[in-house]
Amino acid sequence: MHELAIAQALVEMASAEAARAGAARVTRVTCRIGALCQVEEAMLTLAFESARIGTPCANARVRVEKSPLRARCRTCERDFDVLSWDWNCPACGGDGLVQPGGDELELVSIDAEVGA
Amino acid sequence: MNIPVVRKLLEKNAAAAQENRAWFDRRSITCVNLLGGPGSGKTTLLEHVLPRLAADARCAVLEGDLATTRDAERIAAIGVPAVQLVTDGGCHLTAEHVQRALRELDAQPADLVFIENVGNLVCPANFELGEHARVVALSVAEGDDKPAKYALMFRRAQLVVLTKLDLLPLVRFDVKRVRDDLRRIQPDIDVLETNLRLPQSFDAVTHWLRRMHANRAPGAKSGSGAHLG
């Protein structure tokens, strides 16, 4: 259940960023999560809904931008997403070499409202 | 209004891990985060490797577990100082858990500190503890699909130890497939095999750890060695 730790971090960070910007309420929290992190979106939403209670994020929704695992074809040098552990280039069938990324866990932005 | 932020969600843990790493560095200690699923042979690996290391390195172990002090007792039984960290159901160790245990370690001078993480191939992968290297134990009884299914765990490892090779005739486990999958996700990864019927198979793991520690020593040409990126 690392989703709970992630949701708590999201709420804490988004609330702090809203305060810094002089906003009273957070309406949406956008995060980027790599495919390798095995964060289940439904589980994260559930965890977020319990973590947000009594905070400036109390009515905020969470939006997840998924970041795929990427590989570069050793033959045609094209980059592609590795889906279902398929390392063959969709363009030429060549073998893919793993690229950095796909393991992000980041708060990307918040939508917030000023006023009481 | 939309406010762009871009902050790492686990930055608090990362900051604590950085403090832990500095704590180890000040004492010239090499810290190894030992990971793997429940029953993958992490404690058994330590039981075989620690006596071999004892000749030229002082070792200590932090034992992370959901419950019980059994693993710490196993380590203490071979004469190596062990501190048990019970997470009370928590599925992974955090850098803060380790921070609390470091105070207890201060009385035990060590060259190498092993942190045996909670048995779990998912959650611990996300939480750095301040280690200089990650070692993952994977037993042949767990199946050869694990690197593809739990890719993050293996991507962040410097060494994978395939354990219980003595059981290979009894289970379906394609060693070549596992080695191929490990290289896919981490081209620089080292892979070793241990077998309880071939005690010398543990020598290679001992050698790897010794070399990693030596490469971190001041003046070593490769500097910080297997430092996590």
Q: Can you give the helix content of chain A as a percent range?
A: 25-40%
* Poorly predicted spans of chain A: none
Name the assembly state.
heterodimer
* Head-to-tail CA distance between termini of chain B: 35 Å
What profile does the largest beta sheet of chain B have?
7 strands, parallel
Proportion of beta-strand residues of chain B: 15-25%
How many E-type strands of chain A? 6
Number of helices of chain B: 8
**Lateral strand order in the biggest sheet of chain B:** 4-3-5-2-6-7-8
Give the tally of β-strands of chain B.
Answer: 8
Helix and strand pattern of chain B: EHEHEHEHEEHHEHEH
**What value does the average pLDDT of chain B take?**
92
- Major protein interface: A-B, 33 and 30 residues
Quickly give the structural class of chain B.
Answer: alpha/beta
What letter string, H or E per element, gives the SSE order of chain A?
HEHEEEEE
